[in-house]
Design a protein that fits this description.
single chain, Amidase signature (AS) enzymes, alpha/beta, globular, two-stranded antiparallel ribbon, about 550 residues
Amino acid sequence: MASSPRLSGLALRSAARLVRSRFGALTLPRLLRAELKVNELAGLPIESRGKLPLHNGPLQARPPREGEDLALGTPAAPWSGTSESYARAYAKGESSPTAVVDRALSLARELAARTPTMGPIYMYADDVAREEAAAATARHRSGKTRGPLDGVPCVIKEEMAIRGFPWSFGTHLYDGVKSAKDSTVVARLREAGAILVGMTAMTEYGMTPTGINPKRPMPRNPHATDCIPGGSSTGTGVAVGTGLVPFGMGADGGGSIRIPAALNGVFGIKPTWGRISRESASGGTVAHLGPLATSTLDLARVLEVTGGADPLDDETRWAPPLVAGQFTRAIGRGVRGLRIGIEESEWRDADAAVARAGREALRALEKEGAVLVPVTIPMARYAAAIGYVSIAVEARAALFAEWRDHADELTHDLQITFATLDTLTAPELLDSQRLRAGLRREVANVLGDVDLLALPTTTSTAPRVTDAEFGGGMLDARVIEALCRYAFVGNLTGLPAGTAPVGLDDASLPIGLQLVGDAWDEATVFAAMAHLERIGAAKVARPKVAVDVLTATPR
C-alpha cells in the first residue's frame, strides 16, 4: 500500500472533511493504519499475546539494583545552570528569587515576541510568582529554605490543573473555566518552594508528538527554528531547552516528555507507573507525569519532591514508599558492573547519526565498567502500533462528548485521527491489550538479567517544517513514527524511561539516548544518565535561541 502523504493547508482541511464521509472512511484511515503498522498486529503469532490485563500495575523483574554511592560528585552544571546553580547564586548574593523571577518573566515575553515566536509560556503567573519569589527570597536570607528547589523557577504543562488557570489540554474548549485548586504535583512543587512562572502550551489533547497546534502560539525548536520542537510537552521542552528554567513538568502517554526533551537537547524521565500522582492531571492507562530538566540531578530532585502515595490517585498504591534522598544519592554511583541490554534489531531502525551517537555514549559507559549485553525483545518492534491503538482509543472514549459536539472545532489532524479510530473494532482493541501483556512479559523477562535497556529516544533528529505547516497544522505518519517508534515500550509497560542528550547531528540538532529501567528502579536510570554527564558523553548544548536568567541583579 502506498505511503500516506504529508498533509497540510487545503489538503489537510479537505482530508479532515473527507475522512468523516462514507467514502473517506475507506481510504485515508487504511493508509494511516498501514503506515503505523496497526494492520500488522492481527497477524502476530498467538504466543505473542498474554492474558487480558485486569490492572495496570507494572511488572517488576527483581528488586531494585543495590548500588553504592561512590561519592563521584555532581556532574558539572550545563551552560544554563541547574537548581544547584540557583542556590549557589542566592547564597553568594549574586541573585535572588525575586530577581530571577522578574528576569524569567521578562525573558519569556522576549522569546514570545520573536519571529517566529519562541515563547514557551501560554499563560503567565506574574502576580503569584512574584509573591512566592518574595517569600523565597526572605527564606534564603534567613537561612530557612525548604530544600534544594526553594526559589527555583519552573513551568508546568497545561495538562495539569493550576489554581486560577484554565485546565485546558491544548484546546480552546475549556479556556473560560479556571481551576479552583492545584493538582497534587503542582501543590507538592509549591510546598518545596519551587516557583511556577507560567503554564506551557501543549498540542491539542496531547495527541500529536510534533509540537504543532494551530490553537496555540507554539514555540519552534531553539536549535533550528525551521524544525519542530516535539510534543506534546512542547512548551516545557522549549522552556528548559532555551535556559528559561532549569526544570519543568510534562506528561507522557507515548513519549510526550522524552520526545521534546530529546529534540530540544535536554534530559527527561517518564517515571514508573504510579510513582507520581496524576490527580487533576492525566488519565488513561499509558499517561505518566514527569520532569524535563537541564541535568539528571534536577530530574532526581523533582521526582523526590513530587513522587509518593496520594489518596486522591489510587494508581499510586503500587508505589513503594520513597526514602529521603534515594534518587539524588544515585547520582554518585557510577556504572561499574551495570548490565545494559542492547536489542540490535531495534537500533537498526534508527537514522545513522542517531545510532552512531547513541552507540558512542554506550561505549563510553562500557569503558567506565558497564557491561553491554545483547538481548532479544521481538514484541518491541510492535510497541508503537500497540501504543497508538491504546492511547488514541482511550482519548477518543474520554473525549466522547467533545467529538460528538465539537468535532469541527478540533484541529484537522485530530479530526483525521479520531475518524480513523472509528474504523477500529472492539476485538482489535482488546487484542492490542493482549499483545501489550505479551510485551510486558517479554520486557520483564529481559530485565531479570540486565539492569537497563538502551534504545534511541527517536529514530531521527527534529524534522523540518514550513511556516505554513507549523501555523496551520500538519499530519505526517512518517514523522509520527520517527518520533514515537521507541517511546511506547516504556508507556505500555509502565517502566521508568529516561532520555539524555548524547550529541548533535551534522545540522547541529540534538540526539537523545533512552534508558529503560525495571519497575521502581529510577535510581539506576539516574546513575547511568548522571555518569554520562560526568564523563561528557551527555551534554546540554547551548541552542541558537537561548536566554540567561542568572545574570539578574540581586535585590
